[in-house]
Specification:
Blueprint: E1 2-3, E2 10-11, E3 29-31, E4 38-40, H1 53-122, H2 129-138, H3 145-165, H4 171-180, H5 187-205, H6 208-217, H7 224-236, H8 241-261, H9 264-270, E5 275-278, E6 281-284, H10 286-294, E7 301-318, E8 324-338, E9 345-355, E10 361-366
């Protein structure tokens, strides 16, 4: 609500005309620059305070000009600031791009150096010339280039000698290769090959001494565990001098007393209840063994005499009942005495026998 500038009555600024005096109101008012009361656009003075609007119009024009100048100045300054900001941004962005490029180049350079060193170290564990050639092709400016090239030449010479050596493998050839190439990657392979050769030789000899010699040479060898088991096995199968003496005594009693005299009780003592095999006879009884000896007693024969040879080979062996017995082989000389003392006869036999743990004869072959 405002005061009508014509009649002085209260009227709304939204009214088309003043309801009191009919003056046009809507779109026809302006505020007084001095008292801020509303006046008609057509009035030159304020009806409320008497202010001359023309003075304010001149001042307003000057003010507008000043504002326009200030606005243009501000625009120019703003443009200048924007230009400076754009320039600064461009410089910063350019610097960022340069730094980014430098960073990427540095990282790529570092990665290349790391890859180069990694592949160089990897050559320490290979004997393949292709890896050396690949390194030389990829890193022609490497500080390791000359070193790798020399190592490649040495490796090629070494490979030729290796290929020649493996055509005829022997302990001496392997040791010579190791002596000539002490820094070769094949050193461990050579040691493994010697280990295998020594173990095969020890197994071929199959004696406790040979197995112990292998273990002394290769205490941490590939076959050390197997060799230890074999050593224990051979130790258990080892024949002592006492074993040999008892076995010889048992066999001498069998031949020089029991067989010579065809003594049935002595033969019964020398064998189990039956002998599994005696000269081809299965489950031979003492009587059958005596009959074998008596068959040699022709009419003119007055005595049988047997002598066991000095060389007797004895080894332990698992027999039919699962226990450990003794396998024996020896030569046997037979002298047949005749009534005509000028006509004695002799024969030589090869005997193999198997005795049980009680030293009784369970098998025998006489050839």
């Amino acid at each position: 609500m405002i005061t009508c500038p014509v009649c002085g009555e209260r009227v709304s600024t939204m009214a088309g005309t003043c309801p009191h005096c009919g003056t046009n109101i809507a779109g026809n008012l302006k505020p007084c620059p001095n008292c801020n009361e509303y006046c008609l656009n057509t009035q030159d003075r304020c009806p409320h305070c008497g202010t001359d609007f023309s003075m304010y119009t001149e001042n307003a024009s000057e003010h507008r000009e000043e504002q326009e100048v200030l606005a243009k100045t501000e625009i120019n300054e703003t443009s200048a600031k924007k230009s400076n900001k754009a320039l600064i941004f461009s410089i910063v962005f350019a610097v960022f791009l340069v730094l980014t490029a430098v960073a990427f180049y540095y990282l790529d350079y570092r990665n290349t150096i790391v890859r180069e060193e990694t592949e160089y170290l990897r050559l320490e564990n290979t004997s393949n010339p292709e890896y050396y050639n690949d390194f030389l092709a990829k890193y022609p400016k490497s500080k390791h280039y000359q070193d790798v090239k020399e190592r490649l030449n040495n490796l090629l010479d070494e490979t030729k000698e290796w290929e020649k050596m493996v055509q005829n493998i022997s302990r001496s050839e392997i040791e010579e290769f190791m002596r000539k190439h002490p820094y070769s990657n094949r050193q461990q392979l050579c040691k493994d090959m010697i280990d295998s050769l020594d173990w095969n030789e020890a197994k071929k000899i199959d004696t406790e001494e040979a197995i112990v010699n292998y273990l002394n040479t290769h205490p941490n060898g590939k076959y050390a565990e197997e060799a230890s088991l074999k050593k224990n096995e051979l130790g258990m199968m080892k024949i002592t001098a006492q074993d040999k003496a008892i076995i010889r005594g048992s066999l001498e009693n069998f031949f020089t007393v029991a067989m010579s005299k065809q003594d049935l009780p002595l033969i019964s003592e020398a064998i189990p209840e039956k002998m599994e095999n005696f000269c081809g006879v299965q489950d031979a009884t003492p009587e059958q063994i005596v009959a074998f000896a008596k068959n040699k007693m022709a009419a003119d024969v007055i005595g049988l005499h047997y002598t066991i040879g000095e060389e007797m080979v004895v080894r332990k062996q698992t027999i039919s009942d699962g226990t450990t017995g003794y396998a024996v082989s020896f030569t046997l000389q037979e002298l047949i005495s005749r009534s005509d003392t000028n006509q004695p006869s002799t024969k030589s036999y090869q005997v193999t026998a198997l005795l049980n743990a009680e030293h009784k004869i369970t098998r025998m072959s006489i050839r």
